[in-house]
């Protein structure tokens, strides 16, 4: 099992940047594919980005491609989401998630472990 704690959200103006972090417990962090998801009010939770166990493969939602970067530090049990050129439509609660899948996956039900979420608000 793995426990996840999200942090780094806040209020930022459009065009600004934020860096989210996710701290994972346990000694087997490197065996999990990690992902970031977000959920805006009244909408379903949606995929944002995911990274393979080694960090060598990343996948992004089209809406964030070129603006967001996911990364991980297995030695520190950490995963990050660098968000640049933020837009008001990026406003949501962002969740870190983990899956024991062997390959990078993007479907919400594929992830069995979730952080508590961190609020990101982008003002226009």
Q: What distinguishing features does this structure have?
A:
7-stranded mixed sheet; 4-stranded antiparallel sheet
Strands, helices and their partners?
Layout (H helix, E strand, L loop, with lengths): L3 E4 L2 E4 L4 E7 L8 E7 L6 E6 L6 E3 L7 E6 L4 E6 L8 E8 L13 E2 L3 E6 L1
Parallel strand pairs: 2-11
Antiparallel strand pairs: 1-3, 3-8, 4-5, 4-9, 5-6, 7-8, 9-10, 9-11
Main pleated-sheet profile: 7 strands, mixed
Work out the number of β strands.
11
Radius of gyration: 13 Å
User: Averaging pLDDT over every residue, what do you get?
Assistant: 97
Binned strand content:
over 45%
Number of helices, counting only DSSP H or I runs of 4 residues or more? 0
Show unreliable segments: none
| Helix-strand makeup class | mainly beta
Structural shape: globular
- Distance between the ends: 40 Å
SSE string, helix = H, strand = E? EEEEEEEEEEE
Task: Give the fraction of residues assigned to helices.
Answer: under 10%
What's the short version?
This protein is mainly β. Helix content is 0%, strand content 48%. The chain has no helices and eleven strands.
